[in-house]
Amino acid sequence: MAVKLTKLIVLLVTSIPIFLPLSSPSTTYTTLNQGSSLSSPGDVLVSSPSRVFTAGFYPVGDNAYCLSIWFTRARAVVWMANRDHPVNGKATKLSLLHSGNLVLQDAGLLPVWTSNTAASTAAVALRLLDSGDLVLGSKENSSHVIWRSFDSPTNTLLPGQPLTVNTKLTSSTSPTNHSSGFYKLYFDNDNVLRLLFSGSDLSSVFWPAPWKASWESGRSTYNNSKTAVLDRRGGFSSSDDFKFKTSDFGAGPRRRMTLDADGVLRVYSWRRKWEVTWQLPVPPCSVNGVCGVNSLCTYSTYSSAGLGRSCACLPWHRAKNVGDWSEGCVPDFDRIPRCDSADVFLRISHTEFYGYDIGFDQNKTLEECESICLSYCDCRGFQYKFDWGAGVYNCFPKTLLFNGLQSTGFDSPFYLRLPPSSSSWSETKPLPLQLQCNNSVVELERVYTRENKYGLLRSLAWSAGVLGAVEVVCVLVFLYKTRACGEKLRDQSFIQVATGFTRFTYDDLKRASRSFSEEIGRGGSGVVYKGVLADDRVAAIKRLNEASQGGGEEEFLAEISLIGRLNHANLIQCWGYCAQGRHRLLVYEYLRNGSLAENLASNKLDRAKQFEIALGTAKGLAYLHDECLEWVLHCDVKPHNILLDDNYKPKVADFGLSKQLKRSDRVENLDMSLIRGTRGYMAPEWVYNLPITAKVDVYSYGVVVLEMVTGKSPKEIDFDLVDEDTSSSSVSDGIEECDGLKNLVRVALQCAQEKSDARPSMREVVHMLLTH
Ligand SMILES: *[C@@H]1O[C@H](CO)[C@@H](O)[C@H](O)[C@H]1NC(C)=O
Ligand SMILES: *[C@@H]1O[C@H](CO)[C@@H](O)[C@H](O)[C@H]1NC(C)=O
Ligand SMILES: *[C@@H]1O[C@H](CO)[C@@H](O)[C@H](O)[C@H]1NC(C)=O
Ligand SMILES: *[C@@H]1O[C@H](CO)[C@@H](O)[C@H](O)[C@H]1NC(C)=O
Ligand SMILES: *[C@@H]1O[C@H](CO)[C@@H](O)[C@H](O)[C@H]1NC(C)=O
Ligand SMILES: *[C@@H]1O[C@H](CO)[C@@H](O)[C@H](O)[C@H]1NC(C)=O
């Protein structure tokens, strides 16, 4: 093939061909002239003079190639001509014809792809510019261009490459399969830049949030120029007013903006490897279609694909293609459409399906809503949602179950319509959601070896004495020993920047906090300062002291990427971090109403607020504990770590600094000096060296709630009077003014049981609080 190439008289404008090692029969060009061709997979065209980009045949499978442009060193493909029609490696040819047409041919057959161009009188040549643009244009006049790859992007925009009304980005099918996938970034008719999921049966826009007006998302519909561009410094601006800057804003690294196969738009910067320096701040499950139809998405920090979510079929459904969740699930029963008025409904709590409503019926009882759904043959179930404004329940029957999300953040249940024969299902059976990862769960031992005769008080005294109770935050992340649920994540470059998570420089934070002048809190792990960020957001900046910093930067980033991914209304949000030299800082949202501890001290909370705080805190902890593939134990639940926002909505704080257990470590081997809670709130397991499970947080939660409702500190609460049969305990007898409160106390007492097995899970606590 090399022989054939040399026969073509290749006229090189800027340099002579640079031959690769002789063993490889390939040629490197900087210009392709009329009448010449690239004809073996090894022949490439490089950008001149820097050789940053290479164009040629990129292997996409066994003996399958696509005409592509990629970063020479970083091996990231930025453009493909024939992504959906790869060509054979043999006899494949890209020719620049004398007519001025650029043609890709597969084994002598018809052209697979052409540029559809014709040269005018002037001679044309194909050149790859340093911007990454492959340009077909006049040899004499470089501004005379007849075709350029920048005008037909695939899934990537390079700095300086505009996205226009005529172009769109289309994701790949998967990180390894480059064919056209399901997501598109484009300018819509109303001049707004949007992300669309376009599956085989369904398509829907998911960004900006479709339930909001454009202006509510900060978008303008007035400028019809429809252009968006990422500049060289990492600033992106679109004519609809959408703008952002990458976290490493400034001249420097090579960048690319890619619509990834998971529907998330990201900017990557090259620093010996690709790092995510910005990504579209949409929660992982709000990307439409990720789990397909009849399926539920849950947030899961260490999901198998490292995407911050996992998918599972609805009960009585099975996955169509386990390798590709976007195909969704199909029912295991055959009668569809089902028009049987004997159909039953299965309640699935904390679940919402978005869109595809048949109608909307206000103020309906559950029975009314069921019969509305039964009256439509194609009703697959309904959302039953309480409208806090109107104080009534609303009914949303649905024809299609798409965009399903299960999260402890949702109060409203979904009712799934099933054939009568399936009535044996009940909610107490675990959903497949949990089953999905059961093979990977390492069950922690729960045997309670030593009975404690002296009751809880004794153990509390012990905990104070033995541990000295330093206020050290401790979050234990027990990574389950599993192939499916973890390991891979670490090599994903985007682990380092989670959704909406910013990397700050030390100077940024020093400036924001006016040289760390206003201290607002202090704990074993560090001091918290108030600060105002460059974008005027008020933040709580936690400066970790050296003792609580584990290893190097990598380790720190791995730990905090977890915090950044946790996203729940009842967890304090972490906006970013700084890891520079010896400095380790975390930036959190700042809540003005202080901690529960301060509010308890000043006696400002009425019963309704107390209930909301108990419920919200339970939801936050349930989210930490329950998200499928791992446990995040807080280990230091106490009133100081429950912050209140302007509406007294609680947010659990300080679930941040984790001590991640390596796979080989067993819980028993934990160095006890690392495990410190706060006296009074600590579960007996700590003292007796029993296996630590999520139930330690449940215990602390119970004590906090009791403290809140009784107004007594943990040391004053008379646990000795707490009976096993908690409903008749003296604590609850003391407070009988309302049923809700009684229920709250009953639940709290159950949480504070000495035996960990007797305590409910946080998810059960949420359920118990909501159903009374
Ligand atoms: C080069 O091409 C551009 C665009 O076609 C044209 O406007 C310009 O006049 C040409 N310059 C010369 C010197 O021919
Ligand atoms: C890539 O995905 C496309 C579309 O789903 C499929 O037809 C094709 O077979 C896949 N290619 C490989 C190599 O898996
Ligand atoms: C419309 O957007 C373009 C590109 O961002 C900008 O240059 C132009 O000034 C805008 N026009 C108006 C009227 O704002
Ligand atoms: C809801 O419906 C019930 C019974 O139909 C009615 O008594 C009640 O007033 C309604 N409530 C509202 C807020 O419309
Ligand atoms: C989950 O566990 C059950 C019972 O232990 C088992 O039958 C089932 O196959 C497991 N599921 C998976 C996905 O391994
Ligand atoms: C707490 O929030 C309420 C309601 O927004 C406000 O009136 C009150 O002043 C706040 N308390 C503090 C201490 O800021």
Automatic annotation (TrEMBL):
Residues 29-149 form the Bulb-type lectin domain. Residues 514-772 form the Protein kinase domain. This is Receptor-like serine/threonine-protein kinase. It is a single-pass type I membrane protein. One of its GO terms (cellular component) is membrane. It comes from the Eukaryota. Its EC number is 2.7.11.1. Keywords: ATP-binding, Disulfide bond, EGF-like domain, Glycoprotein, Kinase, Membrane, Nucleotide-binding, Receptor, Serine/threonine-protein kinase, Signal, Transferase, Transmembrane, Transmembrane helix.
